[in-house]
Amino acid sequence: MNETTPLPYRVVSSEENPLYRHFGSLCIPYENYVLHFMRVHAGEVYQGGVYEFRLYPNGALVMALPDPETKITYQSDGGMCDIEISLECLSYVAAAYFWSAVSNQAFEREDDRTNEFAYDHFHATRDAVSGLFRFVMLEDIGTREPTEEELASANNFIDHPHPESQQFYACID
Q1: How confident is the model over 59-103, as pLDDT tens digits?
Q2: Rounded Cα–Cα distance for residues 111 and 94 (Å)
Q3: Do residues 50 and 67 lie in contact, with contact meaning Cβ atoms separated by under 8 Å?
Q4: How many CA atoms are closer than 13 Å to the CA of 114, on its beta-carbon side?
C-alpha cells in the first residue's frame, strides 16, 4: 500500500491491552506462540522487533511484525512448503497456526466454546489476509453477517488482500 492508500486495518495501541481484550486467557499463549514461531522459523534473520496489533473490520486481531522487506525461506515442519516470505507475512502465518492448534486441542478436549472461539479467529485471520469481509466476530463468541454500514465503511479492506496472501496460503494449506 502506498502513502495515500488507507490501511485495511487499524493499529491498536498496546496501552489498550488488545491481546487480553480480544483473546482473554489465550493472550499470553498467543503472544508466546507467535514469538517462538518467529524465532524458530526465521532463524538468525529474526532479531525481534516492535510488533503492531492490527485490528481488521471483521474483528481479526493480528500481532504483526511490520517488516515486509526482510525475507526468509520458510520451510514447514512437514516439508510441504518451501517458500520465500517476509517476516511480516510470517507473523500472520504464526497467528493462523496458533488458532489452528488451539482449535484442534479444544476439539480433542471436547471444549466446544474454545474450539469455536479459535475457529472464528483462524478464519477471521485468513479473511483479513485475503481482503474478505464475510462475517464479524462477536465480542464474546460467535459471528454475524456484516451490516450494510460496516460493508460501506470497509471499502479499503474489501478486495484488498495482503501483498503476500498467496505465500500465506501456501504456508497454511
Answers
A1: 999 999 999 999 999 987 777 788 999 999 999 999 999 999 999
A2: 23
A3: no
A4: 17
Instruction: Report the C-alpha gap between 81 and 13 in whole angstroms.
Output: 34
The candidate with the shortest Cα–Cα distance to 98, out of 24, 13, 31, 173, is 31
CA distance 43 to 123: 27
State if pTM tops 0.90: yes
Region of 139 on the Ramachandran plot (φ > 0 left; ψ -120 to 50 alpha; else beta): alpha
At 100-114, the pLDDT tens digits run: 999 999 999 999 999
Question: Which cell is 91 given?
Answer: 507473523
CATH code, residues 10-172: 3.30.70.3580
**How far is it, in rounded angstroms, from Cα 38 to Cα 132?**
26
Q: Cα 80 to chain center, whole Å?
A: 21
